[in-house]
Amino acid sequence: MAKLSVTRGQTPAERARFALAENACQLADQLLGELASTEAAAARLRTLRVYWRKVRNGKVLSAADFNAAVDVCRSAQRVLEALDTPALADPRLEALRRQLHAMAEAWQALTGKPW
Fold first, then answer.
1. What is the pLDDT of residues 12-42, one digit of tens each?
2. Which member of 33, 56, 71, 83 lies 3.0 to 4.6 Å from 51 by CB, making a disulfide possible if both were Cys?
């Protein structure tokens, strides 16, 4: 008997959107975990991680996972706003900002609602 694919029944657009969400969340968790040195940033990082745990095994496989990933990305933006000046100078943040912007565009294209 053939092994069922996790992505069975998903359109290419869904797979691309889910991959974008997963990559953005992983980058946000990893990078912001290193840079969140202020109390405000650390508190927002805890919220980000609560949402990230809602995504099953760190894999965005469904619409529900995508919605949780959107919450992770919104939390990541709040962490960015709370970072101190030295942390904001980190050149790796530009990649995260691009990922978050792409997530905002994907969310708006999907729902028609602003980020």
1. 999 999 999 999 999 999 999 999 999 999 9
2. 71
0.85 exceeded by pTM: yes
Is residue 24 within 8 A of residue 48, CB to CB? The reply is no
Contact predicate 102/24, CB 8 Å: yes
CA 61 to CA 35: how far, in whole Å? 28
Question: Which tokens is 93 given?
Answer: 């943040």
The answer to whether the CB of 79 falls within 8 A of the CB of 3 is no
- Report how far residue 70's alpha carbon sits from residue 52's, in angstroms, rounded to the nearest whole number: 10
Amino acid at 99: Q
Amino acid at 43: A
What's the pLDDT band for 8 if we cut at 50, 70, 90? low
Distance CA 4, CA 99 (A): 30
CA 71 to chain centre: 7
The SS3 of residue 55 is coil
